[in-house]
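Students often ask why we bother predicting the structure of a whole assembly rather than each chain alone. The short answer is interfaces. A chain on its own may look different once its partners are present, and contacts between molecules only exist in the joint model. In this exercise we take two input lines together and write out one structure for the complete complex. Read the inputs first and try to guess which parts will touch.
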Amino acid sequence: MGGIVDAQKLFDEIPDRDLVSWNSFISGFSRKGSLGLCLDAFHVMRKEFKMAPNEVTLVSIISAYTDNAALYGGRCFHGFLVKNGNLGEVKVVNALINMYGKLGMLDAAYDLFCALQMPNLVSWNSLLVVHAHRGLSVEAMNIFNSIRRDGIQPDQATMVAVLQGCTEMGITQLAQVLHGCIFKCGFAADMLVLTSLLSLYAKSGRLNVAKDVFGGINHPDRVAWTAILASYAMHGLGREAIEVFGDMVKSGVCPDHVTFTHLLSACSHAGLVSEGREYFEDMSAVYGVQPQMDHYSCMVDLLGRSGLLEDAYGLIKKMPMEPNTGVWGALLGACRIHHNIDLGKEAAENLFRLDSSDHRNYIMLSNIYSASGRWVEASKIRSLMKERHLVRNIGYSLIEHGNRVYQFLVGDQSHPDSDKIYAKLEEVIQKICEAGLVRQTEFVLHDVDEDVKVDMVNKHSEKLALAFGLLVTSNDMPITIIKNLRICGDCHSVMKLVSSIEKRTIIVRDPKRFHHFANGICSCKDYCSTLPTYVPARWAAYKYVKVITLHNSVQVAVLFIVHRASVHPVVCEDKKLV
DNA sequence: CTAGGGTTAG
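Now the answer. The structure tokens for the assembled complex follow.
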């Protein structure tokens, strides 16, 4: 809409047409997210005022490309910079590293970094952050190691990024080593770093250690309080999360929208419907936080899970904004639990309308149909999925033993002791079947015989990891399994029974939360998923998972050599030992 | 130029 004219008119009102004015003008547009105006101003500045940009100008423009996810334009601009010899300034290259990293071109980011004569700490951090944000834990650790090996003193941003990068793996040993680094590098009293650390511990299954780290923070702020509250919620301790909320308010720290998201989710998973309703009312009335889309999702989830499907639906109808996929997804999930096909269909239709590229939406609807024996409809959805090339992917489970992390895929036979693992699994399953295990196979999407279904379910990666854990760990240690998918209903029942029959504590982290199994019950109060194992889209970016998808018999072990408070993870790819 | 906490369908 006449961008150049607007930009010029606006600029005419500024008295000093020097570089500083131009830069503040351009960075203003950049911050507001208007890439078009940003470029118009740049054009006018160069062509009409014959002004040469400096690094501030260029960084603002690159940021605008990044924020607008304009990869093509960004690459052209990169070419323009090369042509004009503008890449001498480290800040400009750092901005480009950030742009490529955020827009998914990690190789380009890496190449730019390597071409730098003198990378500064921000260059390193940018490279680290883009890998950490993609969940590339091993790469993030390698970058962190390089920083330490080069004798560079990491700063707050480095520490935060490496801690975030490791959360995806949820490896306790890694958290402990990084904890050591934090002390060694002088961040023992840094609230931002400690907040990330407690979050990492919580996500590695060590809620108690997370609690200790939180206890060591002087005057925790809103974010730190929210992090510990979220940790309790994630571990299924709804009542405790509510207590934390009370303590937070008592200590004079104001909750914000993120705090309420976790609080409502805690109420939902603890089945505390009336408390959740109260907090939903209070958040705007008492704390001045207006409910956003996420809070409506949480409320729909809370009401829906507890069986109040009509209330949940009523809330959706009353929402002041157009419900998004999250809200409909929460309703659909509730419909699955309570077998409400009509409402579930409406939710699924809305999901299709809003996003027909997400394979989860197909699975959910297909699942609703197959759960009620409507195989024709279920198979229609499945073929639609196939038609649209929405492929299913592989699930895996990680388990620590010694200094190694073992990864099991669905039906994995690559472990050298695979025979023993399968034998142990069979023995355990037989034992718990005798104890009355009811197999849950309704989430198998294929219309096959019951015993085939049981066979498919028996090979789930978490069951293999569990059998491995039973074989190699001592009886007094909990078995901790990290999964890339939600745990399925059958595995969930198996874990519960094994915990009571074998008298073991089993901890399973799925992408959303923890399940603590002990004495035949689970901390999630059975609000678990009952879905087949599909990899969510974001996992497709994982390099080491990709390797496995290509060669099914590759065993990946991440080996950590702990060496003077620095970690050197090495990915070993041992071919299957036949 | 990097920069803490993130739930809800899987």
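Check your guess against this: The CA atoms of residues 296 and 327 of chain A lie 7 Å apart.
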